[in-house]
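quick one before i forget lol
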Amino acid sequence: MNDSNQKETKDESLPSRNEGSGSRTHYRTAVIVIVAIAAVAGVAIAAWALWPGKAGKPIPAPRSVSFGDSPNPQTSISGDQKLILTSEQLQRAGLKIEAVGEKPSSEAMGQMTTGVVQANTYKETPIMSLVSGIVRNVKPELGQAVRRGDTVAVVSSNELADVQAGYLTAVAALDEHHRHHTRTMKLVEIGAASREEMEMANTKLREAESEVANLRQKLLLLGLSSQRIASLNSTSQISSEVSVPAPSSGTLTSRSVNSGEVIEANKELMRVTDLSTVWIVGQVYEKDLATVRVGSAANINSDAYPGRVFRGRVSYVDPKVDPATRTAQVRIELANPGQLFKIGMYVNVAFAALGAAEKTMPVVPKDAVQTVGNQQYVFVATDKANEFVLRQVKLAPESNGFYPVIEGLSVGDHIVAGGSFMLRAEWLKTHPGVL
């Protein structure tokens, strides 16, 4: 009896198998419903966020280059890439570093012509001998720089010796007339000489003074210095040699005499020219003359200095048009530091469009450009001698061995102009998957 009661009590305290199975089924159903509701809610929220007018426009991801997407993603290089060489690699490479040059931009290009470099004739000075005689010595060589006052030649002249002798005679005569004039004045005071004798003494004194002054001036013109004339007191000091000084500073651009030659007075021995500025003379067709005027800018470039632009100003436009060529001469004055431009050189002249004279674009030599994949790159030098940066560039078509740079570089940047192929090979060793 007791055992039956205890068994019934125990069975009532435990849930039946059927009751436990139903509870688990209800739990799983609830979880599935909750997940489904969350998924539907997520889809609804996303649809609402993307619905036109309900949200802002998506912001594109930043790009490292602006030259367009590469058709093959494996050949695209993101941003500047550094390349560090060892000392041995750097020595073996034999790199040539150059600054990025420039050329007039298309906006700055107006009328174009070819010009010839000429000396600035306003700064040319002939060196002449004012005496005839024999050239004893010629010092400067053609092309040598001279300074004003430097002795460039020595001439031996009998004419100079004769004038010095005449000068000494005139000085002696002047001393005699001074003494005679003084004696006559004393005689007049005591009544021993007449007024007529006094006037004659005055006249002779003035004539002697005039003769000395004339001969002194002639000696100065013949090349004797004031100090040398002042020290000339006796015939033993007479010299037939006279130094020919340079009348101005500059470069000796002409020399037509050598030692031992006999020359006439007023013969040009040499020509000295100040070459700090030069003239560029070109021809402009009459139909284009309206765009060229005095004071307008001109851009000069030369095959001798590729990648460089020199700026000058129009200083003269010929008022006459050549009837045969229908052109007028135009002269541009150009600074010539270091005498870069030589007389007779041919240059290219671009008369700048109004307001665009200073506009230029960078240019790089052909050898500096390397192709990686289907893109063009240059190696940019850094402050460290063994460190370089691979930079993508956008280039215009090549012309005369140079690429105009549209994007990627600025004038004055230092790039590897020679040996860049070796740097490309070294860089590809560490990036084999780029090609």
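fyi The two ends are 95 Å apart (CA to CA).
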